[in-house]
Design goal:
Layout (H helix, E strand, L loop, with lengths): L5 H53 L5 H4 L6 E6 L4 E4 L21 E6 L5 E11 L2 E10 L1 H55 L18 H49 L6 H31 L8 E4 H18 L3 E5 L5 E4 L1 H17 L6 E9 L2 E7 L24 H7 L3 H11 L3 E7 L3 E9 L1 H5 L1
Parallel strand pairs: 7-9
Antiparallel strand pairs: 1-2, 1-5, 3-4, 4-5, 6-8, 9-10, 10-12, 11-12
Helix pairs in contact: 1-3, 3-4, 4-5, 5-9, 6-7, 7-9
Length: about 475
């Protein structure tokens, strides 16, 4: 899923980390800038107050402060009790006072206050002694320019921070995508190799990952995966070839043994004990022959060489003939095969493979159904798709076994007769036949109730008609 991709998680991580760092950096810059601006204002105030302070010390009776009307510079002279002795004319009736800064102290103190001639002012209180008396010179200056500079910095920050995050997202998306591209190639290659294993037409295409940088982690991963692919492909090829060759080579000697055994059994003067032994041998040879034939069929299907002679036929007739063949086995167990095959279903396919498919499903239904039960066979067609259902009242299949019922040599119910007849390959062959017809096979089952196998076969010619 895209929402859970590594790329997205890494982008979110990078943007989160960079966002926190940028926000922290801008807050730090803002605090430093604010501190520096205030320090500069304090130095400017103290510099403006220095000559006034010298005049007050040198001329104790001077009333110059009352005559001050400077632009953006305000002064007050206050005694230790907080009484205003002198005030510059531009302050008019507004008094700053010691409380605006802090309690009287022997050191210069500065702070920012609200009100007065301007909305915000920076005020410094400078103590000095004139004789035995301690006085305070209050110097003030508006902070409009400083506040404007801080506001501009804040606005620039609010613009630069999203742009920085956006740029980080773009760069991280490019870099992470470039870094994770080998993993994407690995995923695509694994998907192609999966198709190659299942599609006979792609068996000759051995695709390997490009190794751009063999010294980093992803390069070593790609090289290791390529080596694994070569070994797996070789092992799969050898396994397929072995199954094909073994099943092909075993067919002839088993046929010879079966024929010779049947010839011996046809002798009239054969002793009874030998006849019984030969009958057992013949049964086992038939079981082995069926297993070998099944393996050969699956090997041909795996290799894409399962030859199907497509011809025009009626599926309902093929199904009726198969049910008739299975009737003998069903009657031996007092099982009734009910079929609803009145609808004519024209089809174009291989009659022999279809009959084998239906016989496998009917054989399994009879085999795993209790005596006195019923098996229902239905066929119907809709929108160019033929569906054939086989419903039994057998033992059913536990849910945990359902995903594996089409695997080779996998059986849920241990049944000696079942093992002998199918070898655990029946449903695997059925699935191979259905796949060769571009169809599908599904199973629904409930333990103790029964199973329903549904074969779906496409029938384009019927859909066009």
């Amino acid at each position: 899923m895209i929402t859970n991709s590594i790329r997205l998680r890494m982008m979110v991580l990078f943007c989160g980390v960079v966002g926190v760092l940028l926000a922290g950096s801008h807050l730090g810059y803002y605090a430093l800038l604010r501190r520096e601006i205030r320090s500069q204002l304090d130095r400017q105030l103290q510099g403006a107050a220095a000559p006034v302070l010298r005049d007050l010390v040198s001329e104790p009776n001077s009333q110059d402060i009352n005559e001050f009307n400077l632009v953006d510079e305000y002064f007050e002279l206050i005694d230790a009790s907080g009484h205003v002795l002198q005030r510059s004319r531009n302050l008019q009736n507004w008094a700053i006072g010691l409380e605006a800064v802090r309690r009287p102290s022997s050191e210069t103190a500065c702070s920012t206050i609200a009100g007065g001639p301007d909305s915000m002012m920076r005020v410094c209180s400078i103590p000095f002694r004139r004789g035995a008396e301690t006085l305070f010179l209050i110097a003030a200056m508006p902070t409009q320019e400083a506040e404007r500079a801080l506001g501009n910095f804040t606005r620039v920050t609010l613009v630069l921070l999203p742009l920085g995050l956006l740029l980080t997202a773009v760069i991280s998306a490019w870099y992470v995508g470039r870094s994770l591209r080998p993993i994407g190639d690995l995923t695509a290659l694994a998907a192609r190799m999966t198709k190659r294993v299942s599609d006979p037409q792609r068996r000759d295409e051995l695709l390997l990952l490009p190794v751009k940088n063999p010294n980093d982690e992803l390069g070593r991963l790609a090289a290791t995966f390529n080596e694994l692919l070569v070994h797996v492909d070789s092992a799969l090829g050898q396994l397929r070839q072995f199954v094909t060759d073994a099943s092909h080579e075993l067919r002839t000697p088993l046929s010879v043994l079966q024929g010779e055994t049947e010839l011996l059994l046809s002798e009239r003067e054969l002793p009874a004990k030998y006849g019984k032994t030969l009958s057992v041998i013949l049964d086992e040879l038939k079981k082995l022959s069926r297993i070998v034939e099944s393996l050969f069929t699956l090997a041909m299907a795996d290799a894409g060489q399962l030859r199907l002679a497509a011809e025009a036929l009626y599926l309902n007739e093929v199904l009726e003939e198969t049910c008739a063949l299975a009737d003998q086995l069903a009657r031996s167990k007092h099982i009734t095969i009910e079929r609803k095959l009145t609808e004519e279903v024209p089809y174009f396919g291989d009659e022999g493979s279809l009959r084998e498919l239906f016989l496998i499903l009917l054989d399994n239904a009879v085999k795993y159904s209790a005596s006195g039960t019923r098996i229902r066979v239905d066929i119907h067609e809709n929108n160019g798709m033929v569906r054939i259902q086989f419903r039994d009242q057998g033992v059913g299949i536990p849910p945990e076994h359902m995903p594996r019922i089409f695997e080779r040599f996998y059986r849920v119910v241990q049944n000696t007769d079942g093992e002998a007849r199918s070898g655990g390959l029946g449903l695997a062959i059925a699935q191979a036949i259905v796949s060769s017809q571009s169809g599908s096979i599904e199973c629904e089952s409930m333990p103790g109730v029964g199973s329903t196998f549904t074969v779906s076969l496409p029938n384009p010619s019927s859909a066009r008609s």
